Amino acid sequence: MAIFDKFKPLAEAREFLARSGVESIHVTMDKVVSATEAVVAGQPMILAGTNNYLGLTFNPDCIEAACRAARELGTGTTGSRVANGTYAGHLTLEKELADFFNRRGVIVFSTGYVANLGMLSTLAAAGDVFVIDADCHASIYDGCRLSGADIIRFRHNDAQNLDTRLRRLGEKAADALVIVEGIYSMLGDTAPLADIAAVTSSCGAYLVVDEAHSLGVSGPTGRGVAEAAGVEDKVDFIIGTFSKSLGSIGGFCASNHAELDLIRYANRPYMFTASPSPSIIASTRKALEIIRTQPQLRDRLWDNARRLYARLRSSGYELGPEPSPVIAVRLTRLESAFAIWKGLLARGVYVNLVLPPATPEGNALLRCSVSAGHTSDQIDKIGDAFAGLRESLKTGV
Ligand SMILES: Cc1ncc(COP(=O)(O)O)c(C=O)c1O
Predict the structure, then answer these.
(1) C-beta separation of 331 from 366 below 8 A
(2) Active site residues
(3) How remote is the CA of residue 139 from the centroid of ligand 1, in Å?
(4) DSSP states along 225-266
(5) Whose CA is nearest to atom 8 of ligand 1?
(6) What is the pLDDT of residues 40-99, one digit of tens each?
(7) Prediction pTM value
(8) In 3-state terms, what secondary structure has residue 127?
(9) 113 lines ligand 1 (CB under 6 A)
(10) For a tag site, which of 25, 143, 278, 285 has the least CB within 10 Å?
């Protein structure tokens, strides 16, 4: 029985949620109607809590590519990349991603989580050091832990603190791996990558940037925050996912290091799982082409993000530090977070409810995410729903 004791705190947390009238912070999508609309418990819902930044999940060309690939190549590869699971499409996508990022090589993984797990656990070993932003995603922490290397955290988005941590390592700093994200998934803030890259290269350390939330979103051509900051040449490894702006599932690492190809063969999370199915690869390739050829989607996304950010701010909500496709409404009282989240659902708006300890600074968050697929009318409806709830719950929000 003792093995189950560790789940007691979880059971208590779930009971607390249920007592607060929140059965589960997950909802079930009965039907998904478009990139921005679904039916939940029989009720039409505007989706404002996905990572579907460019709205490509319902793009007709992506859907057609996926259907054609399934018809021609089957529903799954049923094997690992290093056995029967490498099809021509996997290699073509790797080449297209390498061209997009101007990198010598790319490895495609089965998810973004697995990309971090595989790359980080393989790049370092016991005796090596990771220096990572404290707010990094769980997949980064898990990859670092699996490697057996030491993990040193620096204060979120604080290049000065990174500098202090690296200098303390002395000569070892030259072999350290510094890891940051582009746009952070919880507060929607952007890494000060020019400063971070300058500090990292001044110590000779390696820089890894997870552009999960910034691919297709930031930079003049959508390559991410490193492109926007003009420091791509200082980034050793770009990690990313297909599950956000590319609208599918999968992950990748791009690099100019010649050893990248060798890393495949030492990379257990790459070798010991099945490769992405042909339909996933086909729709991802089409979505990448759309990122390259339709910059207007990025403009539309940022227009929507600025519009919602301004509206929520003028309603009096405390938000993440800057307008971004991820807009975090920060609430110090859990009760307020529950009440507003439920109120939003009742008004036909779905956002993510994120609770401590998964949140920075211990606040509850209503994490909104904006899509190029949202119409101005939908953005206004989301804003109206928040504004109405703020009025009705004025005390203690
Ligand atoms: C920064 C970051 N990296 C990696 C991942 C994992 O990506 P995936 O969901 O595609 O496995 C996420 C997912 O939210 C993320 O936010």
Answers:
(1) yes
(2) 185, 213, 244
(3) 7
(4) HHHHHT-GGG-SEEEEESSSTT-S--EEEEE--TTHHHHGGG
(5) 112
(6) 999 999 999 999 999 999 999 999 999 999 999 999 999 999 999 999 999 999 999 999
(7) 0.96
(8) coil
(9) yes
(10) 25
